[in-house]
Design goal:
By secondary structure, the chain is of the alpha/beta class. Helix content is 47%, strand content 16%. The strands form five sheets. The chain has a five-stranded mixed sheet with strand order 5-4-6-3-7, sandwiched between helices. Strands 10-12-13-15-14 form a five-stranded mixed sheet. The protein has a five-stranded parallel sheet with strand order 17-16-18-19-20, with helices on both faces. The longest helix is centred in the middle third of the chain and has 42 residues, at 318-359. The chain starts with a helix and ends in an 8-residue tail after the last helix.
């Protein structure tokens, strides 16, 4: 009753307008009958409430306090009983409705082979040897035995696959129909009381000892609270949460015991605090996302296969080579168009998913939103991979080589993958280095990320180490893992397209088998050499050798501190895609920004003139309608205000000429699709940078 006492004493019931009287159950009292007869409005019972529902009684479970029932079987170590099967032929006391213990004994094949006695609720019967075991609560009797220095052994039904809920708050259908606000208020205040009790154990122990149960010692109450917390697991499960699947499991155990019919229909048995919400649109969104991804994969796989056919034709004759080159140019234009058009809906999907996650208040739907976000991220990853392969084969990538610090690059990669490694229980470490290298930082970053991603993906224990070794004029960057290793006969295959070791089921979460092929293509483009050393069962070392670089002065590498205060800022977004405009506006408004969206520079001027809107920052899609560009729109708006305005360019294009044009404008570029977090980071960067540096 700790949570109920806390709700009463801390005024949670009063705050909801309720005058609550608590009636403690006494031995022999049937709490379910008390509620059904109208002597009480609400009750707390065991999972046997399910039996009443199966009998047609109009009981409804409002919430579950204990995710695992504290009901166990306890015996003395001096009895010589070491396992549940040692109870065969012995006397065992079990209280009525202890279905979890009965189900446990049945599943272990022991139930019909023991001498079952009516429970006396006297621990002395166990201590004196009158019975070999008795059903108990893990939060009460063990303390009494420990206090008496009597060694004991506990058999939990969970060891036999029987996992019941404990302390189920219930009421009747009539209460819910006639007093829906009161039922919801009582449930809310009670759960707040339990949360408070679990967060302030010492305070509630003193309260119970002083006002409600002075016969129980403080030590006994603290022991009980500690054990009950283990069964509540509030750190991982919200107090009150109940899973229909668990109730189905409980019903199956009761059916095995012959206490209720099989295939019980739970409809109306579990209380829904938000019964009128309709999420059909959410499922439609998920369906659209799945169709989009499927169609995109078909189109992009067709592009890759077309590339291979073109490469074979080029090798035949000069005539065919000229023909293939013409086709290759058309293909590049097709790739750029496909990339832009596919990234637009993918961008909208990412923003809508982030907006849903921000607004949704139904915990049971958050995993579905996470699935939408994960689906979008997978789509983006696969889209980028297939397009990279196409661009490498087409020779459309042109490296921009410079000198840069390797430590900054490795540290950033490790930070980005740290959560993924932690989720798998792996240790991800980076050995600090002061060396500088000469390469294209973006392409080298992509190569190393593919290596690290592969290392984490195939390591099940141990960790991943990122470091480098110095040669005379070069640096060898190595990624060590403790994964499954690669057999020697298969090592020459790993850098080929669509080749995966240890993924016979073709799990999409493990990618398409393009990561190492992309790394190999980028390394050849940069003139860097790759190497692989692997021992099956022990792990692998992927490495790339790059030239040494010349360190720049401290002034050249100084970085600007980025602030993250974008709340209340005026943001102007120009994009010719309505779906992207609407989605971006939704997520930026969640950030606290004031947003105006337009499909062109002319519409933006009209909106600003009519509303008096003055932007603090501008975001514009690079490719607008009728041949217009976002860069031109930004310059026109800056010229109109006669002062610098922070601005950034969004683009879904991959065509090299378009990317060079966008970079030449001097504005920061963000590639679609980008997540809400990346959009927020871009806005923070723009609003914290010096305006003079935003354009040239």
């Amino acid at each position: 009753f700790a949570g109920f006492y806390a709700a009463l004493e801390k005024g949670f019931y009063k705050a909801e307008g309720l005058d609550v009287t608590l009636i403690e159950a006494q031995p022999g009292m049937d709490t379910e009958a008390e509620v059904l007869n109208g002597k009480a409005d609400f009750g707390v019972g065991t999972s046997s409430i399910l039996l009443q529902r199966a009998l047609g009684k109009p009981v409804v479970v409002l919430a579950v306090i204990f995710q695992h029932s504290p009901s166990v079987l306890i015996t003395l170590r001096s009895s010589g009983i070491d396992n549940i099967h040692d109870l065969i032929g012995k006397k065992v006391m079990i209280e009525p409705n202890a279905a979890s213990n009965l189900g446990y004994l049945r599943r272990e094949g022991v139930l019909g082979k023991i001498v079952m006695l009516r429970h006396s609720f006297d621990l002395g019967d166990l201590i004196s040897g009158k019975v070999a075991a008795q059903s108990s609560f893990s939060s009460v009797e063990p303390y009494q035995l420990e206090k008496a220095h009597i060694p004991y052994l506990i058999f939990s039904p969970r060891e036999g696959g029987v996992d019941f809920y404990g302390d189920n708050i219930f009421t009747t259908e009539r209460q819910i129909e006639e007093y829906p606000e009161r039922v919801n208020a009582f449930r809310k205040a009670t759960l707040l009381g339990w949360e408070y009790a679990m967060q302030h154990i010492d305070e509630i122990v003193e309260l119970i000892h002083a006002k409600h149960n002075p016969s129980r010692s403080r030590e006994a109450l603290v022991f009980e609270a500690t054990e009950l917390r283990k069964n509540m697991i509030p750190e991982f499960v919200e107090i009150g949460y109940m899973n229909p699947g668990r109730w189905q499991h409980i019903a199956e155990v009761y059916a095995e015991l012959g206490m209720m019919p099989a295939k019980f229909n739970q409809k109306g048995f579990l209380y829904d605090p938000n019964p009128r919400q309709d999420y059909a649109w959410l499922y439609r969104l998920l369906t659209v996302a799945a169709i989009l991804i499927t169609l995109s994969m078909i189109v992009l796989c067709f592009i890759v296969l077309t590339n291979r056919k073109l490469a074979a034709q080029v090798a035949e004759t000069q005539h065919m080579r000229d023909k293939a080159e013409r086709a290759n140019k058309e293909k590049n234009r097709f790739i750029a168009a496909v990339s832009h058009d596919l990234r637009q809906p993918a961008q909208a999907l990412a923003f809508y998913a982030d907006a849903l996650s921000h607004d949704l208040n139904a915990p049971h739907l958050l995993p579905l939103v996470d699935s939408i976000r994960a689906t979008g991220e997978t789509f983006q990853t696969l889209l980028d991979a297939l397009l990279d392969v196409s661009l490498i084969e087409a020779g459309s990538l042109h490296p921009v080589v410079c000198d840069f610090s390797l430590c900054d690059l490795l540290t950033r990669i490790a930070q980005d993958f740290s959560r993924q490694a932690q989720d798998k229980g792996l240790q991800l470490r980076v050995l600090s280095t002061a060396v500088w290298v000469r390469s294209d930082p973006l392409h080298l970053d992509r190569i190393l990320r593919n290596f690290v991603s592969n290392a984490i993906k195939y390591a099940t224990k141990g960790g991943v180490l990122i470091g480098c070794r110095r040669d005379e004029n070069a640096i060898r960057i190595e990624i060590h893992d403790t994964g499954i290793g690669i057999p020697q006969p298969l090592q020459h295959l790993v850098f080929r397209e669509f080749q995966q070791i240890g993924n016979p089921e073709r799990d999409r979460n493990k990618g398409l088998g393009l990561g190492l092929a992309i790394a190999d293509g980028l390394a050849r483009l940069l003139g860097h050499s790759l190497d692989l050393r692997s021992t099956q069962g022990r792990g692998s070392i992927f490495s790339i050798t790059v030239p040494r670089g010349r360190p720049l002065t401290s002034d050249a590498v100084a970085q600007t501190v980025i602030a993250d205060d974008i709340v209340g800022k005026n943001i102007l977004l120009i994009d010719d895609d309505q779906m992207v405009r609407e989605a971006a506006a939704v997520i930026m408004e969640r950030f606290g920004c004031i947003v105006v969206v337009a499909e062109s520079a002319d519409e933006a001027f009209d909106l600003m003139r009519d509303s008096g809107f003055v932007p603090d920052a501008i975001l514009a899609d690079y490719r607008l309608r009728d041949g217009a560009t976002g860069v031109a729109a930004i310059h026109a708006i800056i010229a109109h205000f006669g002062r610098p305005v922070p601005a950034g360019v969004l683009t879904g294009d991959t065509a090299p000429d378009r990317l060079r044009e966008a970079r030449a404008a001097g504005f920061p570029i963000a590639h679609k699709p980008l997540s809400g977090a990346k959009l927020r980071a871009l806005l923070s960067s723009l609003l914290s940078a010096e305006p003079q540096a935003q354009a040239r």
